[in-house]
Design a protein that fits this description.
The protein is an alpha+beta fold. It contains 9 helices and 25 strands. α3 packs parallel to α7. It is flat and about 100 Å long.
Length: 387
């Protein structure tokens, strides 16, 4: 039975009963989980994403009310007054033409959220509310009904609720003030209701595409080989260095069980290319395992010049009739460190580099200079990345 199953193709799975397919998938999953994985192997779900299964960004514009005098200043944020006037008109309240009013308890805000994959109408998502004007604080405010739109202009969720603000500020009569964190930004946990489910490409078509987090031809080949070894030949094929297409059942239930087995397969990603990353701002240097150095002799010395000023007072002899003066006294000391040369033999790897640098006591700045010089000399067999 196992031999026959291994030769079946995913397009034949659609004819299987759901119970039979799920039983086979469960058996495969148990077999995979009890087998001893390679020490460097990772699950497919940890190194890939499924094409079409993604979140979508939502954004909206609204009003926060109920502030304790920390809202927008009308003279500097006319859009707040305009928005508030439009809201009152929609609620059936007509203001006299030219009427002016203060909105110190109201703030114009932008609202953004992330619509997760497979989110369904009626589910709740978190929203973040940020001041769009010059409001000092949103603490204690309540967001009024705000539609959240996607990049296609459609409304996918509606937000409303009381804000949770982590920052706060205080100000004295003399103008002194203190602010902790950012009081002009708040969150509403579960503050938006999903109205429309975002489209996804997971349920469409006869294949699933896995995208590697880090494109690599060798890793893509290993993923395809692992899937084919589990489900049979020609089930998976590489599209490029980042994508692997997998033929899958058309039935939604069978497709979920099929994907559950695949994402738990263990694959050993190929080692990344030889690379050295240098953060020039913090002095952090990360050297990859595959970095090698060609035969080279390196000397890196430092010249320290110390100048010390020790002025001295010169007094004349008694009854000489002279004046006391200050005589400058400058001491210059030059120190040049020795024993700063070391040799890299052929095939030197990471541990040898670290050992040689530690023996001469090179600081991060010294190591940066050494690595850059090795690259210019053509002796560094790695990519040098400076961020």
């Amino acid at each position: 039975m196992d031999k026959q199953r291994s030769n079946l193709r995913p397009d034949e799975h659609a004819g299987w009963p759901d119970a039979l397919f799920q039983w086979l998938a469960l058996g495969l999953l148990v077999l995979i989980s009890v087998s001893a994985p390679n020490a460097f192997a990772q699950r497919l779900k940890d190194i890939t994403d499924v094409a079409g299964v993604r979140a979508n960004q939502l954004v909206g514009y609204g009003l926060v009310v109920g502030l304790d005098g920390t809202g927008d200043q009308t003279s500097q944020t006319p859009f707040t007054t305009q928005t508030f006037r439009n809201m009152l008109q929609q609620l059936g309240i007509q203001l006299p033409p030219g009427a002016s009013f203060q909105t110190k308890n109201v703030a114009a805000v932008t609202v953004h959220a992330e619509l997760p994959a497979f989110a369904k109408p009626g589910q709740q998502i978190d929203v973040t509310v940020s001041s769009a004007g010059n409001a000092n604080s949103l603490r204690g405010g309540t967001l009024l009904v705000t539609p959240l739109k996607g990049l296609d202009g459609r409304i996918y969720a509606v937000a409303q609720g009381s804000l949770v603000v982590g920052g706060f500020g205080a100000q004295g009569n003399d103008g002194s003030s203190v602010t902790v964190n950012v009081p002009s930004v708040g969150r509403i946990p579960g503050g938006a209701l999903v109205e429309v489910a975002a489209p996804d490409g997971f349920s469409n078509g006869e294949q699933i595409v896995f995208n590697l987090h880090r494109a690599d031809f060798t890793t893509a080949r290993r993923v395809a080989e692992k899937i084919n070894a589990t489900f049979g030949p020609e089930v998976a094929q590489t599209l490029d260095a980042a994508s692997i297409a997998v033929r899958s059942p058309v039935n939604a239930s069978q497709r979920v069980a099929f994907l559950s087995v695949i994402e738990n397969l263990d694959v050993e990603p190929d080692a990344t290319s030889a690379r050295i990353v240098i953060n020039s701002r913090t002095g952090t240097i990360v050297i990859g395992d595959k970095v090698e150095v060609a035969p080279a002799a390196v000397t890196h010395g430092s010249l320290s010049v110390t100048i010390a000023e020790s002025p001295q007072a010169s007094q004349p002899n008694p009854l000489a009739g002279g004046d006391t003066v200050v005589v400058p006294n400058t001491e210059v000391e030059i120190v040049q460190e020795s024993n700063r040369m070391f040799v890299f033999d052929p095939g030197v790897q990471l541990q040898d580099i670290v050992t040689a640098v530690n023996e001469v006591g090179a600081a991060p700045g010294d190591l940066m200079a050494i690595l850059e010089a090795l690259r210019e000399a053509g002796a560094l067999r790695a990519e040098l990345v400076v961020i």
